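Posting this for the archive.
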Amino acid sequence: MTALERKHGTGETPRSIGPKWPAMRYGLLSLATATALVFSIELIFRGDFSATLGFFLQPFKPGWTTIILFTLIMITLDALLGRIYQSLVIVAPLTLALAFIGHQKSLYLGDPLYPTDILFARQIVDLMPLLVRERPLTGLAMLIGIVGALALFVFAWRQWRRRIRVMTYKGRFARLAICLPLLAFFVSIMDYASFSWTRDRLQIIPMMWDQKENYNSNGFALAFALNVPMAHVSAPAGYSDKAISTIAKPQVAASVPAEKPDIILVMSESFWDPTQLPGVTIKPDPIPTVRSLRAGSVFSPEFGGMTANVEFEALTGFSNAFLPAGSIPYQQYVRAPIPSLATFLKSEGYEARAIHPGTNWFWNRTNVYKDFGFDDFKSEENLPPMQKRGPLASDASMTDEIIREGEETDQPFFFFAVSLQNHGPYEPNRYPDPTHAVQASTSQWSRDSLRSYTEGAADADRSLQRLIDWAKNRDRPTVIAFFGDHLPPLGPVYVETGFLKDNVAPRKEPADKMLLHHDTPLVVWSNKSGPVQDLGSISPAFLPYYLMKTAGITHPYYTGFLGDLKERYRIVDRNVLFDANGNATPDWARQKEIDPAIRDFRYIQYDMMFGKRRAGPDFFPETLNKLVAHTS
């Protein structure tokens, strides 16, 4: 900046220079600054210089549109703040930090950063003590980085305010008059649910069905912005009151046996069979109980995390496949009562209770369980002191609590329990008394990390055996279902054993690979009829059907509609369908013609979650006069 600019500000210029030169110079410098910033954002997010350069060298990629957009944003903020280039002090740290977080999330969870992940911030903060205990140097580096960044921000802000004079009101108004309408236009074309001719000409193509390609093609900033509207879920094409009324009515009514069976559904954190890793030998067998009783597999819609999305399907019988990619229903969409297993069983005289030895606000569970119809939620805040195994509450303690509450409950009960012990990260020597030996051609760190995970999986298996032994001695009929929510985030272990090419599984891959990378063990057992067998691989949304069928319970939706649907499909995922014979249909949602069975599944879910609940009387009679209508 010249001395003349500092003296007069960019709204006033000396007569000898001419009235347009400072404004033109400011605009060009803003454009250059925005170019450097957007390039840095893409470089950090992609982690690959050649890929970043390629993104900008292609003239029809939206990288240059992003640069123009950032230029407008920074000029607008400068005008609002009253000093030129001061917006850079705000925009640069924020966007570069988001790009870094997005890169890390892609590495460890396989998904880019979404706007809705901001709702997950408190969960990350809650997990920080565990990270610090497991990786103290990493925790210290993060603390130093955060404190240093804040100090640098304050220093830069104060220096800028001290050294740069205030713009004239005339200059500020002129900038706002030009930039605000253009920004408003950009906002108007960012709704991915509606077609935009201008957006199409700019080569900004929303790929909400494939978020990895969405971010790769549109760039981090634009793809992030395209995901903002996912807070609103649009009605599926063809949805109407008439469409709901034409769905075939279920042929079964709600009924329970005269002697109501107790039902226990256990979702075990990251439970999986580690012996599936190629070239790995583990002795003794870490999961003998599950292996002997296994009914089949749950095809998890997630990998390495996002437990709440699996939980959502297992409790409601609805599917994440019909919600925007990257969304978390527990955080965004469950804002009013929604039918679930708890809703129905409670209407039949059951005590419905959720148990999780973690904090009650994690994944917004307190509010969600209330909307799902649970009578009570036992969490860290109101559970008896739980014995720890490693850094977290043990599976054995959670099993003790399930048994204790089961013995003290006179009414028939439905317990939904979510374990915590085997949550990552799996640092070496997590347990001081390992009972398993791991042999693998990997680094020592990976072998030790895998052994830590294996010990946790073995503890979960032993806890299941103890729960079954208890149920065997009961007079009351008891049904127990046990499954893993997703594969564990083992990271380098997968790469070094050759199980995966990267730390996480890709969202889209051949069908056999998807089954390998998403299937977790499933047990469905009854103390009256023994284990259920030969279920194959199923979506979590079909768990209510098999659970209630084993218990001898019928219901218009959970055994009626889902029962009919499972005759055609066993896995409903946003990227692939598997029919009853195991045949895969990838990218089904992009096809012009969608099977009416899947279409009706989507209609019912939308109607009960976001619509007028016209499907309630036929499919969820227990909800009549108990659910408020949605206003979305």
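Residues 30 and 617 are 60 Å apart (CA to CA). The first strand starts at residue 262 and ends at 268.
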